[in-house]
Every structure is written in structure tokens, then in C-alpha cells.
Amino acid sequence: MDRSEERLAGLDLPLITCNTAVIGSGAASLNAAVHLFDNGVTDVIVVTERLGGGTSSNSGSDKQTYYKLSFSGSVPDSPYEMAKALFDGGAMHGDIALIEATVSPIEFSHLVAIGVPFPHNQFGAYVGYKTDHDPRARATSAGPWTSQQMYAKLLAEVNKRGIPILDQHEVIALLTSGQGDDCKVVGLLAIDKQSIDNERYGLIAVRSRNVVMGTGGPGGIYYSSVYPEGHLGSTGIALEVGAIAANLTEWQYGLASTAFRWNVSGTYQQVIPRYISTEPDGSDEREFLNDYFPDMGTLATNIFLKGYQWPFDPRKLDRLGSSLIDILVYIETVIRGRRVFMDFRKNPSGCGKMEDFRFDLLSKEALDYLTKSQALLELPIDRLRKMNPMAIQLYAEHGIDITREPLEVAVCAQHNNGGLVGNIWWESNIKHLFPVGEVNGTHGVYRPGGSALNSGQVGGFRAAQYIAHKYASAPCGDDEFVRAADPQVARTVELVQRLLGSRSGLTPQEFRKRMQVRMSRYAAHIRMPETIGAVISETRGDLDELNRGNARLNTAHDILTVLQNRQLCLTQLAVLRSIQAFLEAGGGSRGSFLVLDRNGKPIHDQLGEEWRYKLETTELRDRILQVQYDGQGDFKTWWVDVRPIPTDDFWFENVWADYVEGTVFGKR
User: What is this structure's pTM?
Assistant: First the structure.
């Protein structure tokens, strides 16, 4: 890494030159940095807006799952079997599925070797369990904080290798050279958040031959989000330079606490707390679920099942299924403006409409589970203390005592199955740009639980392999870099100067809330075809307002908030255009979202005609919806057929020759 200074857009900016800049400090990014170094690419830096601030370090669940090929026990497994499980979820390319399956033992073993405490038995077997959409027992876990432990161990490996980390540096733009198919990344532009009020606005440029982008999913586009506070994602900066994205319609939504952002899955539901809603001031407490279930047995069993069936899933609406709870919570919070809480201090009561909670009213499945867990105890909090005491401790560590107060929840965005497109080496259509982790849209409609953690590790490994063998030389020279970067930096500087001169409009914080609330209402797990056009128009209007620099700043640090809002708005528009194209193609309810249709299937007799939904159009699982920025303030969309799982017999002598000659890395 070399440090110098370069004059760009009339400013003398700090310039860092390296082979590869890794954006983000989550498990996928750090793993890529480690593998780059170990593959001989030692001229690598990590650029992060806040070390430890991403989803890897701050997310988890009741039992956070890592999905991998099974290599224990007597039940046979193979990369093709695992690839089929990934591929069968729909809208996923078969070659990517095969790679994620084939490389999973390598990357899992790497995590074990660096000290992530995945459990094994006395014979050394890493025994697994079944997760959702998993026909084998491929899942494993290091506990509620699996990804945090991955992050910590990978960070230690980065530090051991002396890889520089630029902390408190937010990347606000990718710098590119060339057009169309010849477009390539040549570096990035960041803001040093500790120097944002200097005469250069904190701007710093990085010149690099490659950029590995591991910035997580764009959770900041939603108001109701379980992504860590402050984690926004940076998908918009790649979209702006023409990176193609795919499957942006496909997300995972589920119930989560809001004061401290955490998924309330697993034992949080299996202990069967009561659900209540109140007015915003806490008055008018009601057990609102009672209005929609015929008896306590059905109600309590469905609360229990939310532990297994945590993500919202339209397939689980039939016959008063567990996903009805998500719909009812949405109606209470978003439509009626009330607040919803899970209360572990009391059992669900019938409120005179049905029997009060009793264990013998539960389904056999629920009763057997609680019996085997020795959790037939009086109150939900007692059952939680028995089954998962860490669940109580977790909230206590964040100032929430669920033994004394109810827990506020909402249906939140949790994971983006779509994202930026990468080839079989995780390289974008923008050459030398490698999106890894959740920002890369490898997943389709349904994915086995825990496959995202595996995908992030595999992506970093593959990107490092390719860079080491194909892109290990020095970045472009001074003249080429300045020619490419100067006009792009100038546009940013001009926008910053307009912002500093603006005295009208909303504050950046008010603007963001307006954007996010609109997305959570109209483009999250409930989608209404008749509103999508108006929402797109409003979002395009927001983008125009941001481009004009119309905002009321309170401090210089609000500059960064506006720039974040701009990339979030671009991402929102890409998601909305994707939803619109999906609906125009006849797409129905699937994955983790519901498409409302007054001529469709009713959800519940008491919800009225507006709460009917369109069933899935299954043939669309064989196609992937792609989207690309047109450079003029909007996005174009098109469909591609999924690529099948490769069936070559991979004769060893041919593979050996390809590897020795390096041609294996020439196949895009």
C-alpha cells in the first residue's frame, strides 16, 4: 500500500494505491482479504465505515445456522445433492449452486482451523441438523452468535497478516474507466468520517486494480428492519456505475424486536408468549390475535410454530397457518398505527372469547416438543429460562428486561436473497469488481437456512483465487486514473457544495425516514400492484431532489447522510422497478412476500376483500429478473433463464491440464 496525494476535481486528495481494496469488514470481506494474502496478493487493504458495525458482528438468532455439505454420519451426501437443494429453491443458477456446495467443506474447514467453535462429537464428526428447505441434516451452529464468532476469528487472521484497515472510512463511490462491456473499476472514493469538516470534505481516493465489495444487504431501504442499527448497505454505489443486479424482488421478512434489533425466532416463539397491541401511548391493550383464531389450541400452536416457521411465507397462510400472525402484526402496526408486543410474563388468555391457555390444548407436535424439553412450566418466561436462558440474557445486555416488560416487535426485513450479479468467480459485469456476501445475489426464491453464511465464505475464496491468478498485477497508471476519476470526483464535490449552500428541504434524517416508511408499507412482505406505479414516481422524485442537493443540513456530517440517502434511493428504485416487472410478468406470492389481488385467494374471512392474494406463478422460478441503471435516473429490467447444474463428468486428466495451464481461470 502506497500513500500519496493526487489533485482531483481541484482538490489535493489523499491517495492510496494497492492491488485490491476490500470494502466492508464482515465475515465475507475479511475472509476474502485473508485468502488474497494467502494466495500471494499481499498488497490488499480493508476499507470500512465502522469496524465491527455490520451484520456479521451484530446479527444472530436463537441458533444461528451455517449450512454446508454433510460429511458425518451414515447418510450419504454429495456436492450435487446439496447443489440440487440450493437450486430447487428457484431462480438460482445451477453452476453457482454447485460451486457453493463443492467449496463448502473447504471453507467450513477453514473456519474450524482458525478457531470458530463449531461442535463435534468424540469421534471428530461435525454432526448436523435439518434446517428449513434442507432435505439432509447439513446445518450446524456455533450458537446464537455464529457469524459474530466468524467475524472475530477472521479479523484476528487479518491482523496476524498485517493487512491495513482503514476504519471510519465510508465508500461513497466506485471509480470506473471505460463504457459498456469494457467498463472496469479502477478504485473508489471514500469519506474519512473523522475529517469530514476539513477543506477536502474528508474525501480520500483509492486506486486499485480490484475491488472486493462485501458491504452486506441493503437493509437501509426499509424502516422496519432487523439489520443492525446503522447498517445500510452500499448496493447503490455499484448500481450507479452500471453493475447488474438480480432477484431484487426476493427478500426474507420476519418478526423481530425493534428497540434492539433481533429476530424473535426459535424458542422466543416456542415458549408461547402472549401477543398484545396498544395505542402509540401504550393505552388500549388488546390481545388482537384472539379475533382471528377459532380456539386457543389453534392460536397457541401457531405461535409455537412461528419458532420453526419464522420467515413470513405465503404458503403458510392456508388453514390459519402461522404466517397469518405476520399479516395481523402488519395490520396492527403499519395500517392501524398501533404497537405490537410479545409478553413473556403471561400466557395467552381467551379474553372471554375462547379458553385460556392450557398445555393440553396444544397440537401433539408442540406438546411433545415442550415435554421433551422439560418446559411444561407455568409462564412463558419460565419456559424460556429453562429452554434458552441466553435469550433472556441477550436482551438484558441491551437494556431490555423481558422478565419485567413486554418486547416490542414488528415484521422486519431480514435478508436480501437478491443482489449484484457475479459470474462463477464472483466477478461483476463491471470488470475487477467482486461482490461477495449478501451484496451478491446468488440466492433465489427459497434458500436453506444458513446458506448465506456459506455463500459469503465461498464467494470470498473464489474471488481471491481469481484475482491471484488473473489480476495480481499493479493498478492503472497516474494518467489513466486521473482521466477516469477526475470527472467522477467532480460530480461528488459539486453535489457536496450544493448541499452546503442549501437552506431548504427536509433534514437528511427526516428525508430518510420518509423513504424508508414508504418502502416498508408498499414494498416489503405485502405488495399491492395498484400502488407500485405511484411509489416509483415518488421515489424518482426523491432521487431528483437528492441530485439537486435540496436538503437542510445541521452539521457537516449530514453531508454523508445525504450521500447515503442517495445510494439508498437508487437501490429502492431498482427494487421497485424489479417488483413492477415481476408483477407485469404475472408473478404471484412466493418466497417471503404476498401479492394482493382482489380476485385471488382469501386470507381470512374477517379481513375483507382487500386481503386476497395471488398464488405463485411457479414457471417464473425458471427465470431470473435482472436490473441495470440506465444512467439517466431510472432502471431497465429483463429476464434470463436459469443456468442448469453442470453435468460434465470432469475427467481428471483434462481438469489437471486446465489447472496447470491456468485456463480454468479463463472461463467466465
Answer: 0.96
